[in-house]
Automatic annotation (TrEMBL):
It comes from the Eukaryota. This is Uncharacterized protein.
Length: 394
């Protein structure tokens, strides 16, 4: 507790107490007495031993930088404005985590602070199915959620490596904006459900990605609540009265832009780019028959237009999307497989079924597979060739 000594009553005039003359900095410093120990984290703002010291602004805390909106802790009912506040807080968290990562700051700490405010982990069960999670689609614990948001590498989570690239930092590219567009919001007393879509803007390219969501928010406030069994008061789990997420399901809508992200994620799982040299000769590549880099492989799979690769335009129509027609089935037929320790080779043919016409296309392949440093088997050799149709007789 602080006390500030003023001059005697004889020196005061009518009205609020004040100094008769402007006190020096040294006088003010001397007049301040600390009656009790300062609380943890208390910051004076200047060197009190030096009267001429400049005031120093303390570094903003993660919560200061997040600038989250507040909730009405006096009521256990969730209002539509509080749903909007919860959504604005979530969007702010994604943008702030991306910004801190781009600055080289502690984005993991920022994400942990945000998650503690946004999600109900530790206070209630949380049902979380993230957008890009496939091998581990459900994240019931805070640690698994953090792995998804900041990446398995940052969380040292070997089980999730190769899947969790860090959604909150967009795999390193960052997000510069997030816009919620609610389809409908249902208010259910101390909980609420919101369904709609949000649009993410890539901080590097400016591309927009649309994702569909269902969020569930829950708020309980006060010191206790009646038990449904005994009618007695029982402690509440979310006693600070904040809206927190107990349900979060996101899914990517299949539109332009999304298939590129899906292909990039699949390529990272399937091919050894970044882990080992990859020998790749695609089926339909002629002017640029060899693709030693991940970018060149992506151009072949999703098309030069989608990858903004002018050098490959006219050649790369997007094999993975069949030039826009799509594939509805692929069947591998191995001729022979040979295993040589950490490497294996497979030769045979696969049959692709056109999603538009139903026509079948047979392509011959040789694949080489190698176990990478993370323990996962990925393609290190891929040679495909389509059998040419016979020319018609004259």
């Amino acid at each position: 507790m602080l006390s500030l000594s003023c001059i005697s009553a004889a020196g005061l005039v009518a009205g609020p107490a004040r100094y008769a003359t402007a006190p020096s900095r040294a006088f003010v410093r001397a007049a301040v007495a600390v009656e009790n120990a300062a609380p943890a984290g208390f910051y004076w703002g200047y060197d009190s031993s030096d009267p001429a010291a400049e005031l120093v602004e303390p570094e903003p805390t993660p919560l200061d930088r997040l600038s989250f909106g507040r909730f009405d802790a006096s009521s256990d009912a969730i209002s539509i404005d509080e749903v909007h506040t919860a959504q604005a807080n979530w969007a702010s968290a994604i943008k702030t985590i991306s910004a801190v990562h781009a600055e080289g700051g502690d984005f993991v700490d920022m994400a942990a602070t945000a998650a503690g405010e946004l999600y109900g982990y530790g206070k209630t069960n949380v049902l979380f199915k993230p957008t890009k999670a496939t091998e581990h689609p459900f994240r019931p614990t805070a640690e698994e959620a953090m792995s998804y948001f900041v990446g398995a590498e940052a969380m040292k989570n070997d089980a999730f490596k190769g899947e969790d690239a860090g959604f909150a930092i967009n795999g390193g590219r960052g997000w510069k904006d997030v816009t919620f567009r609610n389809h409908q919001v249902e208010l259910l007393g101390d909980s609420a459900i919101a369904m709609g879509d949000y649009v993410f803007v890539d901080a590097t390219s400016g591309d927009e990605v649309r994702v569909e969501y269902t969020f569930g928010y829950r708020k309980v406030c006060g010191a206790c609540a009646p038990s449904t069994l005994s009618g007695l008061c029982t402690p509440l789990q979310n006693e600070d009265g904040k809206c927190r997420i107990f349900l979060h399901h996101s899914s990517v809508y299949a539109e332009k832009g999304d298939y590129v992200a899906a292909a990039g994620e699949a390529a990272g799982q399937l091919y050894g780019y970044g882990h080992t040299d990859v020998l790749f000769k695609p089926t339909k590549a002629t002017e640029h028959p060899f693709r030693p880099t991940a970018e060149e492989a992506m151009s072949y799979f999703v098309g030069a237009e989608a990858m903004k690769n002018d050098a490959f335009k006219g050649e790369d129509a997007g094999f993975a999307i069949n030039g826009g027609r799509g594939w509805k089935d692929v069947t591998f037929r191995n001729h022979q497989i040979k295993c040589y320790g950490e490497v294996a080779h497979a030769m045979g043919d696969y049959v692709f079924v056109d999603a538009t016409s139903g026509d079948k296309v047979r392509v011959e392949y040789t694949f080489g597979y190698k176990r990478c440093g993370d323990g996962k088997v990925r393609i290190c050799l891929h040679h495909s060739s389509a059998k040419k149709a016979k020319a018609a007789k004259a």
